[in-house]
Amino acid sequence: MFDAHCHFQSENSIVCSAQLLPQYINYPFDISLAGYSEVGLDARFTDRVPMEKQIETLVSILEYAKTNRIPVSLHCVRATGVMIEILQKIRPEKGYCMWHGFTGSVETAAQLEKLGVLVSVGPRFKGSVKDLGYFVIETDYEGDSAQEHEKILEGLYQKCAQELGMSIQNLEEICNERTAAFKNYRLTGKR
Fold first, then answer.
1. Per residue of the chain (191 residues), what is the pLDDT tens digit?
2. Phi, psi of 179 (to 5 degrees)
3. In the chain, where are the structural domains located?
4. Which end of the chain has fewer CB atoms within 10 angstroms, the N or the C?
5. What architecture does CATH give domain 18-187?
6. Integer Cα distance of 105 and 5 in angstroms
7. How many degrees, rounded to 5, is the angle at CA 67 between CA 66 and CA 70?
């Protein structure tokens, strides 16, 4: 089974990313550090980094990543509208961005899909994956137990496969294909 996003390094981890989140970035920021990363907006930390600075940094990172064909995992807390506005301006190619930890509505997921953004759902997603189009599965697991990570991942695949009325193996193949496109964005396609 493939995990689209976690903080636990394993053979099943697709994205085990460096975090370039607002609360961790040192300013002034060296844009060349923006490799295969989790980037985004987080309204919980506007006391440390004002939203305007978060937006400016995010836009710089996304433009750099797009120019250099570096896939990014999007982190967004309480700033969905702003993030979507930024994505509409950046116009990401399909495979360039994955919205990690998606907990939004079906309508927002459809809007993200039109923008070429891969939606990654995990344990906190309250909707049904049968209502989503272009998605993958993640745990966002931060622990260090391979056994616990596998348990969470297996449970998510079982739940999602049941909702979709398909086998876990079929769902694994779909998620693997979608995450492979994300993972290989740098190596593929036209500019």
1. 878 877 666 555 544 444 666 766 666 666 665 555 788 899 999 999 899 999 998 998 888 888 888 888 899 999 999 999 999 999 988 878 999 999 999 999 999 999 999 999 999 999 999 999 999 999 988 888 989 999 999 999 999 999 999 999 999 999 988 888 777 776 654 43
2. -75, -30
3. 18-187
4. C
5. Alpha-Beta Barrel (3.20)
6. 20
7. 50
